[in-house]
Structures are given as structure tokens and as C-alpha cells.
Amino acid sequence: MHELGITHNIVAIVIENAQGLTVKRVTVEIGQLSAIMPDAIRFCFDICCQGTILDGTTLEIIEIPGLGKCRHCGTRIPLSQPFGQCYNCGSIELEIIQGQELKIKEMEVEEICV
Amino acid sequence: MCVTCGCSDEANVTLTNMETGVKTAIEEHHHTHTLPDGTVITHSHHHQEKEHHQTHSHTLTEGTVVTHTHTSSTINSPQIHAQIHAKTISLEEKLLQKNDLIAAQNRGWFKGRNVLALNLVSSPGSGKTTLLTRTIKDLKDNLSISVIEGDQETANDAQKIRETGCKVVQINTGTGCHLEASMIERGYQELKPEPNSILMIENVGNLVCPALFDLGEYAKVAILSVTEGEDKPIKYPHMFRESKVMILTKIDLLPYVPFDLNLCLEYAKQVNPKIEIFQVSSLTGEGLSNWYNWLKQTLKVETF
Ligand SMILES: Nc1nc2c(ncn2[C@@H]2O[C@H](COP(=O)(O)OP(=O)(O)OP(=O)(O)O)[C@@H](O)[C@H]2O)c(=O)[nH]1
Ligand SMILES: [Zn+2]
Ligand SMILES: [Zn+2]
Ligand SMILES: [Zn+2]
Ligand SMILES: [Zn+2]
Ligand SMILES: [Zn+2]
């Protein structure tokens, strides 16, 4: 599974919430520290959408950069990996406060009712 | 097929009871919960209440799956209609939620029976099965251990574990590259580990995906062998960050391989300052007593 399975979940959750309406756009949030590759999700998305009401839906991925907070001095440290070192006090005890997101943020559907 | 890990969604997951030899298929992923069944998804575009007579599946927040047919009264609930008529629907739906819910149930099941569940993760061939069989043999008289074996194919590892006399079930994930909480649920239902015992889960050899999936275990135990290179902890930081314990194994080979032991320990601590590290050889037995003490201690602390 992994990216394919996760994409499969995206499609299934969106279909359920769409209640049959045409979905124009799906916005997904993926943290850069989440071990999920946005490119792989994009690749899988078209395949998973085939034959469903999501065929042709635009996938929008918001990549959220990693951010840690030093447990000793509170300094916020940008992170490109899920670990790092505080540039202020040198501590390696960082709490990850951003970048592990993995969720469907919103979807845009066609309005049908007046 | 997944471009990252090569796993496919059509994986044939099976569970084999090693005592009876009975093999059963496990439905993968629990996907069906969110998929409206059959033609359901072709919802009418005419807003006529009579046309809302359709069957849907819904997942409630606590994980319960409800399938029902919409009558005009249920679909007419103001909240559902507000959602339908809005142009943008806010979701905030966590993608691993289903797995996490089952994992939480598993955790409760283990706690209620004083079962210490450990999720052994590593690259292929690092020595999980060897460490397991040795641990079971050495602790047999003091501790009850049962095993859920995860592999893509074959029941070879489960067979080796079975030879030690302990209870074991084999889960084959087919093309899947990791175990999921639902597979563990089926596994312990079959195994029925006894109270105050240890349940070892040998995950599929893979340092990437198993880090993402909570199985409801007390701890992940990362196994790293000295032949793999000292930089593994920083190359696969997710796995080492998620693990409470790291076992550095095959240390009997240290004289023969260029492996910087101190650098490896430093990397592991850098990724996870709280990680507990044991250096062992499953071949010579060196260092194993520390691991055994940790097992006994943790079982006591966690369960009494
Ligand atoms: N020298 C030495 N060899 C070991 C040690 N532990 C395991 N091995 C050898 O390493 C090889 C792989 O060990 P396994 O226990 O099968 O590894 P595994 O992690 O279970 O492998 P998969 O289930 O395929 O991922 C075998 O040939 C073992 O004999 C050790 O401590 N020292
Ligand atoms: Zn994978
Ligand atoms: Zn799937
Ligand atoms: Zn600091
Ligand atoms: Zn309507
Ligand atoms: Zn093995």
C-alpha cells in the first residue's frame, strides 16, 4: 500500500462526501516530514479516479514544510528531515510541530441546487 | 502499482494458522467502508427528494460502518444538505484514520489482557527471525511468547518459529509492504495470546512503510545489523524515530566489516534521543541478556 493505498483512501473519502455530486477539485495537505511522496500520490490519483465520479478531478497538494521546536530553549527550527539540531542551544531534542500532516483539507463540488 | 514501493492494492492478504494449517483470506485495508456500494455513487443531479432513495455506507467518527438507504427524511437532514449545496466542502479528514482506529482498539485489547505487543521492524534479512527464535528458546521457561509473522510470501519464517514450540500465525501480505492494524486484529483473534504474555509481531522487511502504520503495539523495535552500514538511522529516520528500542545485531561480525559503531549510535540518538539501544549477536548470544531484561522489566511495568 503506502502511496497507492493512501490515494485510494483519498478517492473513497471524497466519493462518500460528494454524495454523487461532480467533484471539480480536491485539496490534500501533506507534510514534508510525513514520508509520503506528493509525486507518487499524483501518479496514483489518476489511476484511482478512473471509472469513478472523480474522473477528471483536479488534485491540489499543499506541501507543509517541517518545523521543530527546541525542547530546551523554545527556538523554532525549520526541518527538512524528522530530526535536527537547535541552532541556538545545540540541543537535538526537538519536538516536531509541523510537517507531519496527512489529510484531505477540502473539496469543491458543482452546485446544483438553487 | 505504487511507484514508491511497488505494492499493489490487489494484494492477496492471507492468514495461516500454523497449528492447523488452515489458510484464510483477509480482506485488505478495510477500504469498503468509505465506498458507496454498487451504483450508489451516481447520485441524481435533479434535486427531487424522491430520487434520494439510495444506499450509502458511512463511517462514523468512532469507526463504525453504517450502510443504509436514504429516504427523503434522512437525506433531508439540514446538515447534509448544507454540505451538498455549498461549493467548497471542508473535510479535515485524516487519511490513516481507519487504521489508527483499529490500532487503538488493538491497544485496548492488549492492555485488557496484559499482553505486551512488540512490532519488530527492519530491512529484509537483518536478523528478526533469528533473534526471535533465539529469544523464545532462551526465555521459554520464564515467559510466554506468541508470534504474528508478517511476510510477503511463504510461511518459512513462521515454520522456524513453530519449531520452537510457540504459538504462531503467518500473515502473507502478497504485494503489500507492511502490516496494518486490521491484519493484527485478525492475527490475535486466531492466536488468542494468553494473559501476561508477550506478542511479537515480525513486520515485513522494509524500513519505510511500517513506520506509518500503528498496529496498536506497545513499542516498535527496530533491528539493524552491522552489515547494513552505520548511516541507516539517518537515512530512514522515520523508522528509528518511531521506535522505542533499537537492536544492533550481528555484532559478532564487527571485526570483519567496516562499520563505525560509535557513529551509528550517535546517528540513532540524533534521530531519536530517547531510543534504547541493545547491541547483540543472536549467533553467539552476546548482549542478549540486556534485551531479555528489558522484556521482563517492560512486561512487569506495563502489566502489573
Ligand atoms: N553472524 C550473524 N548472522 C546472523 C545473526 N542474526 C541473523 N543472522 C543471519 O542473517 C540472515 C538473515 O536472518 P533472518 O533472521 O532470516 O533475518 P530476517 O530479518 O528475519 O529476514 P526477513 O524476514 O527476510 O526480513 C540469516 O542467514 C541468519 O543466520 C547474528 O547475530 N550474527
Ligand atoms: Zn509501501
Ligand atoms: Zn488499497
Ligand atoms: Zn535550543
Ligand atoms: Zn438534495
Ligand atoms: Zn524473518
UniProtKB/TrEMBL annotation, chain A:
One BP term from GO: protein maturation
Residues reported in the UniProt entry to bind Zn(2+): 70, 73, 86, 89
Chain positions recorded as Ni(2+) binding sites: 2
GO molecular function: nickel cation binding; zinc ion binding
Coiled coil segments of this chain: none
Keyword Repeat (UniProt): no
Alphabetically ordered keywords of this record: Metal-binding, Nickel, Zinc
Domain of life of the native organism: Bacteria
NCBIfam families, per database record: hypA
Function: Involved in the maturation of [NiFe] hydrogenases. Required for nickel insertion into the metal center of the hydrogenase.
HAMAP family for this protein: HypA_HybF (MF_00213)
Family as reported in the entry's similarity comment: Belongs to the HypA/HybF family.
Protein name listed in UniProt: Hydrogenase maturation factor HypA
Organism annotation: Aphanothece sacrum FPU1
TrEMBL record, chain B:
Family annotation (PANTHER family): HYDROGENASE MATURATION FACTOR HYPB, HYDROGENASE PROTEIN ASSEMBLY PROTEIN, NICKEL CHAPERONE
Domain of life of the source: Bacteria
Record protein name field: Hydrogenase accessory protein HypB
GO biological process: protein maturation
Recorded family membership: Belongs to the SIMIBI class G3E GTPase family. HypB/HupM subfamily.
Ranges of residues in domain CobW/HypB/UreG nucleotide-binding: 119-278
The organism of origin for this protein: Aphanothece sacrum FPU1
NCBIfam families: hypB (TIGR00073)
GO molecular function, one term: GTP binding
Matching Pfam families: cobW
Keywords: GTP-binding, Hydrolase, Metal-binding, Nickel, Nucleotide-binding, Zinc
